[in-house]
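Worked example (supplementary).
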Amino acid sequence: MSSHTDHSQKTVTAAILVIGDEILSGRTQDKNMAWLAVQLNEIGVQLREARVVPDIEAEIVDAVNKLRAKYNYVFTTGGIGPTHDDITADSIAAAFGVAIDYHPEAMNILTRHYETSGIEFNAARKRMARIPDGATLIYNPVSKAPGFRIENVFVMAGVPMIMQAMFAEIAPILQGGAKMLSRTIGAGLPEGRVAQKLGELQGVYPNVSMGSYPYFKQGEVGTNLVLRSTDPEALNAAFDALFDWLKTQGVSASETS
Amino acid sequence: MSSHTDHSQKTVTAAILVIGDEILSGRTQDKNMAWLAVQLNEIGVQLREARVVPDIEAEIVDAVNKLRAKYNYVFTTGGIGPTHDDITADSIAAAFGVAIDYHPEAMNILTRHYETSGIEFNAARKRMARIPDGATLIYNPVSKAPGFRIENVFVMAGVPMIMQAMFAEIAPILQGGAKMLSRTIGAGLPEGRVAQKLGELQGVYPNVSMGSYPYFKQGEVGTNLVLRSTDPEALNAAFDALFDWLKTQGVSASETS
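After joint prediction of all chains, the assembly is encoded as:
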């Protein structure tokens, strides 16, 4: 793949919808957002928005419908377990205006799973086989209860280990576009000293997004300068221009990851 | 304060808007959301939604306007530094349809700060004194550059240490309502075995929100059952009913935090 084909590809965007009171109460620290952001970028999908909503159907419906209209892909996490507060599947069905019922393949998977493990396949566990009409299953190699895809919305578990396994199932079918490339300089100067130069360079390289993130390490003030672009040539040119300027300032500067 | 006045108070809601490409790229793991959720609840403010948007004015404006119309308070983090990608102040001004200019008090604070520290107060740093018309400052004891409040929107830094110091400044002026109380049982059984009972109890105690979160620890499967309510009597009654039932099931169950 040549560098030229890279940045001539179209931009593919995504949003993440995190569903769950436990995130909004602060009880659980969401870890799926950052993980998915990195994985999506690897396959040329750019995360453009994330939302966290409570276990309330109207809120889930509203968020899903807004996000699926705006982005190429929507990934939801959470709310697909066996308990009464797991309302994601019903909410997605409501968002799409379709019915929801026990999905034959999901029932088969779970019947086999609980038979094998000698655990009762009770009514609560059968809830996990309820899938909106028209959706296809996302297999769950960890704990079996599947996620599902309906149009451009991918519904996954909230437990990171399970979500990651589900994502591995769907990654091959996602259609990526231009991949966002990134280079970072760790510079031993405060933001305020590089800000003007960075703004100038941003004008020179409009296709390179330039971010500046101060850090404080062992009493030292520094700035991570993150350059991002789908165009590797522009990225490298901007990187070199910034790096060369930093050297003229007599401050430490090195490429970091 | 008696337990009765607690749950007769009104519900006060909030949303958090995290602003920054670095969160959506996965480069930085957001830590402000969970921290603020806990702090807000301490003062009787319930976090109901969180959003993460990129450094794009139209996205910030749209999110701020949606959230400030829907919730009692909105807290933003990120994008108030000296570099060109710090566009939060301008975006908030645009959201409120007000002008933005150098704020005299913010200029004084920063002038003094840079004089004292012998650092040039250059044009980039002066950007941090630009505050929307009608806003009041939120002092920043860590690095001086202030945040601000305009109506029900509180604009804070993204660096957790600075955000936390700013929140300490504004916490006393927030008007809290009913505080969400919470009790958790760690139970040595899978979700699917407690789901039916939990659903039944949810029907009996409609004012107690019941959440169920599976865990896998050293090969053992268990479930954290989280009961939340603004009504301490209902909370305790629901807790006792669930705890007593778990004991009849011959599984381990203990109150955890």
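Two points are worth noting when inspecting this output. The domain at 3-173 of chain A is CATH 3.40.980.10 (Molybdenum Cofactor Biosythetic Enzyme; Chain A). The radius of gyration of chain A is 22 Å.
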